[in-house]
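Subject: Sanity check before I submit

Could someone independently write out the structure tokens for this chain? I want to compare against mine line by line before I put it in a report. The sequence has 261 residues.
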Amino acid sequence: MQAFAYSRPASVAAAATAAAADNAKIIAGGQSLLPSMRLGLSAPEALIDLSAVPELKGITVAGGSVKIGAMTTHAEVAASAAVRQAIPALAELAGNIGDRQVRNRGTLGGSVANNDPAACYPAAVLGLGATVHTNRRDIAADDFFLGMYTTALADDELITAISFPVPAKAGWQKFKQPASRFSLVGVFVSQGPQGTRVAVTGAGAGGVFRVPAFEAALAKDWSAAACQGVTVSADGLNTDLHGSAEYRAALIPVLTGRAVG
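---
Independent answer below. Compare away.
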């Protein structure tokens, strides 16, 4: 790991200014960035640590929405009584990310900004029709995820919080890789202010995606039975040592039915 400058700004404005420097990287929980630096896959000249920015932390529920600060950890989301009451599936998702160490260091904003194709949080953001708030603008979930490790964020743009509409119904299921606990396939379903939504992570080569066929079926009949007979093409899905594209395509209907309940 090469030498790098380190700063810990106390405000969003100061962090954004520091992030605008050439070859600077923002560090939130560091669960993806630090391993990539150790492997030589990333070599930033400067790290901007967001842990000292108080306005990026916290959870509020108001107006039919759960708003979670970007630097709120997975463990904090999972343990929040407010989240468990408003969106139990979101708390369940957070409580099953990685292991205890990862959940106590990893953050909502860091996971969503990184947009790992097998990460859990992007499925919740897209599956609930959430809004990503940054230091510049508000971005709808459907416009945020652009592909593997790629989002709509500019280099010096920071996620400040994410607002999740409280659904009438929601569920989450994942088939995890047992060592990393990343999703081979994960499915988040919801029915609420943003309509009926089904978002899949872990399966797509380009990252998280929605499945309109399941959304149409569940809009008519919110039941596991409605998922039977709906298929997903293996075209464009991942094939790796853990499972083929066809295997992942077969898992999606199963997990969708289980998520619905």
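---
OP: Matches mine. For the report I'm noting this point. The longest helix spans residues 245-260.
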